[in-house]
Amino acid sequence: FHAALLNDAAGDMAEAEKHYLAGAEDDANLSYRNVEVLGGFYQRTGRPEAVRALYQRFLEQQPGSPLLDEPLAQLKSGKSPPKTVRDGREGAAEALFGIAGGFARQDAAETALTLARYGLALRPDFPMLQLVTGQLMDSLGRHQAANDLYGAIDPASSLSWSARLAMAVNLNRLERFDEAAALLRKMAGERSYDPE
Questions:
Q1: Which of 110, 140, 176, 182 is the most buried (most CB within 10 A)?
Q2: Do 138 and 150 form a contact (C-beta atoms < 8 A)?
Q3: Whole-angstrom Cα distance, residue 42 to residue 131?
Q4: Distances from the Cα of 48 to the Cαs of 65, 139, 141, 161, in angstroms?
Q5: Looking at residue 27, what is its pLDDT?
Q6: Angle between helices 32-44 and 48-61 in degrees, nearest 10
Q7: 187 close to 165: Cβ distance less than 8 angstroms
């Protein structure tokens, strides 16, 4: 994955695609991150049909998922997304995100949180890292700090929905029931067509 990002940033599209595809093929159940990044790559390289096929595959595995709302809207508009990693700072933040995820899977939440916060210092507008950092804070019982991170996620991001659900759960944990209910009512109004 990181080799793909490096080659993409350097402009070696053939090598980047080879590594992106290897990551997607290893992923029997496609991860949102791989789909987001590979879909953006296909879109930037003028292959909308490949994007649609990839998104369809993800949606078959995750029916009704709101995670592709933003990428699908971007595809429909014809506007290409920016590169996932545009410079060294963003590359370092992406690497820290990956390492933090590894520590989190090993139940080393404090170490993961430290690395994630370093990543956010480098790239504060990284929704996936904001969400993961919030989840790490939640796992450590730091619910208000988690909500501060969830609330900072760009509302246009596909991850905003998940972040706001987590905020509502935390508001409930913090016994701020009226705020939790108001947030959930607002979200229900935004997606009245969605039974979930």
A1: 176
A2: no
A3: 25
A4: 20, 39, 43, 25
A5: 62
A6: 170
A7: yes
Answer for the pair 153, 169: CB distance below 8 angstroms, yes or no: no
**0.85 exceeded by the pTM?**
yes
Single-letter amino acid, residue 137: M
Closest among 142, 69, 126, 129 to 101, alpha carbons compared: 129
Secondary structure (H, E, C), the chain:
CHHHHHHHHHCCHHHHHHHHHHHHHHCCCCCHHHHHHHHHHHHHCCCHHHHHHHHHHHHHHCCCCHHHHHHHHHHHHCCCCCCCCCCHHHHHHHHHHHHHHHHHHCCCHHHHHHHHHHHHHHCCCCHHHHHHHHHHHHHCCCHHHHHHHHHCCCCCCCCHHHHHHHHHHHHHHCCCHHHHHHHHHHHHHHCCCCCC
Q: Please, what are the averages of pLDDT over each run of 10 residues along the chain (196 residues)? A: 88 91 74 90 94 93 87 89 91 94 93 97 96 96 97 93 96 97 94 71
Whose structure tokens read 């296909």?
A: 42
Tell me the C-alpha distance between 189 and 184, whole Å: 9
What's the pLDDT at 80?
86
Cα 71 to the center of its chain, rounded Å = 11
